[in-house]
Amino acid sequence: MRRHFLPLLPYFFLCLLFSSAHAAGLVDYVNPLQGTDSKREFSHGNTYPAIALPWGMNVWTPQTGVNRDGWIYKYRENTIRGFRQTHQCSPWTNDYAAFSLMPVSGKLIAAQDQRATPFQHANEQAGPHYYKVVLDNKISAEMAPTERGAFLRFEYPEDQGAFLVVDANSGGSEVKIFPRERKIIGICKNAPRSVPENFANYFVIQFDQPFTAHGTWQNNDGQTFPGETERRGDYVGAYVQFRPGAKVNVKVASSFISPGQAEENLRRELGRHRSVASVKNAAERAWNEHLGRVRIDGGTPEQLATFYSCFYRSMLFPRQFHEYDTRGKPVYYSPYDGKIHSGYLYTDTGFWDTFRAQFPLNVILFPAMHGRYMASLLDAYDQSGWLPSWSFPGHSGGMIGNHAFSVLADAHAKGIRTFDPEKVLAAMWHDANAKGPRGPSIGRSGAEHYWKLGYVPSDKHGEATAKTLEYAYDDWCAWQLARSI
What we know:
Blueprint: H1 2-5, H2 8-14, E1 59-63, E2 79-80, E3 82-86, E4 99-105, H3 112-115, E5 117-127, E6 130-135, E7 140-145, E8 149-155, E9 162-167, E10 173-178, E11 183-188, E12 201-207, E13 213-218, E14 223-226, E15 230-233, E16 236-242, E17 247-255, H4 259-270, H5 276-291, H6 301-313, E18 319-320, E19 323-324, E20 330-333, E21 340-342, E22 346-347, E23 349-350, H7 351-354, H8 358-365, H9 367-384, E24 390-391, H10 404-413, H11 421-432, H12 447-453, H13 464-484
Antiparallel strand pairs: 1-3, 2-5, 3-4, 4-9, 5-6, 6-7, 7-8, 8-17, 9-16, 10-11, 10-15, 11-12, 12-17, 13-14, 13-16, 18-22, 19-20, 20-21, 23-24
Helix pairs in contact: 8-9, 9-10, 10-13, 11-13
């Protein structure tokens, strides 16, 4: 095997980082619907069509599933109940900070089950940079992403009432309507237990068409309050009405810092854009540039589609959690200590199993981004006392092992110098000898027995063999880093 594989390595690396002119059109190979035709009986995993920029803070997707259900989009389902901002990195970790927009035709219906509208996949277009569907009720919906927002466009039939429902989700939410400004702002607080109490996602929605009516609604029954401009509670939302046949452009952005920062994100990322096509073209250029880091010679169109569809998935996580203030400086809300910090932060990834392949690939293809991410791991340690193993967006504690050791040691071995290796070693020593507050991978489950016996005993801990192997590998990574300095 080694004799056949090694001669191919120089050829592989020569195919990397080639001229962007060769990358034009690579996004057309990507199929975001790949992997969505799944069900629980078949697999514990599922993908959804992620409409986003590489490592964007937010992802947008059509939603066929109910709120707070990890299976957001199932290809076999035939109704859409919203176009959702999501941060979900797997169905069994579920989502957080999610809200959605849904166009409604005819009579106003706010409740998520009743507003779900049939559609056909033949009327659906999906790419990383653009999504469009024509629903069976003749409403056309389009969306194109920015890093912290999206540009959406809805076209309504001429002879029906035209409504847009904003669903701020359960778990604590607020909405406020500004009819004269053609704007809605809101807060959604749905989140896992791994975040501080002051966690919130602040969103702003700007329309280019006047409202003919507006109101709020609440709860799963969708009780409406016509004319009301503000509502808060466990589960609330807003609605606005347009003239029949309206063609409505909608700009949306959000922030984990403040409502003012959400407005700044909207201005910075969407202010110059006047159409969904403009945002689509910008997103297409971004994806072609990133996908173009790897060139494939030969292969069938089907093989190219398989490769680039998978390559696209590798650039969704970890996601950016930082934003840019009015001076253009990076800032972020920390899901570890609940405070605002300067600098870069990335989150929403588990190092199981991505430490084996995705992150070693990232350090080769995207060293600048990867260097920022490595530095942010130490920031997370400073703010929480632990290196992340599964961040979502704080410490979820899932899976086993301390694979930040592997990712950091690999980055240093490949020339990344955005962090202090001695500080990293101190953090590794701490995490290898202590157990955190939740889950087996915050610190080290079974550390006391591992160090005393040289293995994790199965009569004391679950997953003992796997833990022993992973800890031994992670310790080897720490030793390689120590030896290199």
